[in-house]
Automatic annotation (TrEMBL):
Keywords for the protein's UniProt record, in alphabetical order: Sigma factor, Transcription, Transcription regulation
UniProt-recorded name of the protein: RNA polymerase sigma-70 factor, ECF subfamily
GO MF annotation, one: DNA binding
Start and end residues of each RNA polymerase sigma-70 region domain: 21-88
Domain of life: Bacteria
Pfam family, one: Sigma70_r4_2
Gene3D superfamilies reported in the protein's UniProt record: 1.10.1740.10, Winged helix-like DNA-binding domain superfamily/Winged helix DNA-binding domain (1.10.10.10)
InterPro entries to which the protein is assigned, alphabetical: RNA_pol_sigma-70-like (IPR039425), RNA_pol_sigma-70_dom (IPR014284), RNA_pol_sigma70_r2 (IPR007627), RNA_pol_sigma70_r4_t2 (IPR013249), RNA_pol_sigma_r2 (IPR013325), RNA_pol_sigma_r3/r4-like (IPR013324), WH-like_DNA-bd_sf (IPR036388)
Origin species: Aeromicrobium choanae
Length: 190
């Protein structure tokens, strides 16, 4: 597979190419990382995403593909960093120091604007992890199934099965229908 012009420019270190790749993938990456459990409250999704971009910048010479393929590649890097962070936390069982309060100004959310995010997270939390990840990537973030399968480290068939099962569970869940009726402007006509 040959690189497209954007990836070739990024390999040459052109700032505009990196900016375009960042704009295309960063918001979805952070939004996806927010749905993944880390166990370690000190490992914020933004930190994992920043480390993924750092790794991508240092290893971009090894990457071959288009700018769309780059999205799958960086999501895969972030998944591995997140898993490493989770394993490290489990070994060390680290916790932030109590009593320390950070005086940081709130940062605007660059993820997709999803109405009723808490409701959506609660509904998706009822799904098994693989189904939740498959539905979240394909239906929540709009990622194509081939790339989503690559991100999760599973085959396209396994992703299709997990997504189908997750959507079937959601469609059959009476609690989902009841909560939809309680929120009239979520999805009219459902």
């Amino acid at each position: 597979m040959t690189d497209d012009a954007l990836v070739s420019a990024a390999k040459r270190g052109e700032q505009e190419a990196w900016r375009a790749l960042y704009v295309e993938h960063a918001g979805r990456l952070v939004a996806w990382l927010r749905t993944r459990p880390t166990g370690d409250s000190a490992a914020a999704p933004e930190d994992v995403a920043a480390e993924a971009w750092f790794v991508a910048a240092s290893k971009v010479a090894e990457f071959e593909g288009t700018s769309s393929d780059f999205g799958g590649w960086i999501f895969g890097i972030a998944r591995r960093i997140s898993a490493t962070s989770r394993r490290t936390w489990q070994r060390r069982n680290t916790r932030p120091t109590e009593g320390e309060e950070l005086a940081l100004e709130p940062v605007p959310d660059h993820g997709p604007d999803v109405a009723h995010q808490e409701w959506l997270r609660a509904v998706l939390a009822g799904l098994p992890p693989r189904e939740r990840a498959a539905v979240g990537l394909v239906d929540g973030l709009g990622m194509d199934p081939r790339t989503a399968a690559e991100v999760l480290g599973i085959s396209a068939v396994a992703l299709r099965v997990a997504r189908h099962r997750g959507l079937r569970r959601l469609a059959g869940g009476s609690s989902v229908r009841a909560s939809l009726e309680a929120i009239p402007d979520v999805a009219p006509g459902i």
